[in-house]
Write the structure tokens for this entry.
Amino acid sequence: MDLRGKVALVTGAAHRVGKFIGLALAEAGAHVLIHYFRSSAAVPATLRAIEQRGVRAEAVQADLTRPEGVETVFAAADRAFGGVDLLVNSAANMVAGNVASLSRAEWQAVLDLNLTAPFFCAQAAARSMQARGGGAIVNVSDLGGIRPWARYPAHSVSKAGLIMATQVLAKALAPAIRVNALVPGPVLKPDAWDEARWQAVGAHTLLKRTGSGYDVARATLFLLQADYITGETLVVDGGRQIA
């Protein structure tokens, strides 16, 4: 798929990995609608950076854990661009929890954003894409979706569910719409970590280093452009999962 002139919606795109993906899409010639919720301070700089690449950029604020939030995002896409051709489900949270004491509310808050929201964003995007002749979706999962993280029970389950949702959506929406998943490894240092801890994580990959947001962005572009790939999960982790 040639991305020039396409309209891409990236959720959670104001900063971190979502921003890298938005910038990569802009460099490939796609117009970008960036979704955000709480990261409003980062939005103006991200919009400017996308527009500097010669494409249109718009932003929309919404809580994707609520049905009206999803409706808000796609209404904005319709107003600004007449719909979407590409969707990257990047918005997520990562909340630790103890299996013995995790509350129902804590469990549900994670699944609402990490699994339910991407599914209903894909549902809404599919309607738009079908009207525009097809499209492509990438769901950003996590290593916790393919390896059990006992300290992050809801997160692991939600991200594993997103991989299965990817396969279900790919089967249901073919052949007009392709759906794939991406599993990043250590690519962006958590804000609360010091550099020594981050480098120690990189040392446990086969490549003996951490990655970057650009690695995830390039992999996302590959999945969006590769016309004969659907229902697949691409791991971008420097070999950490098998190290």
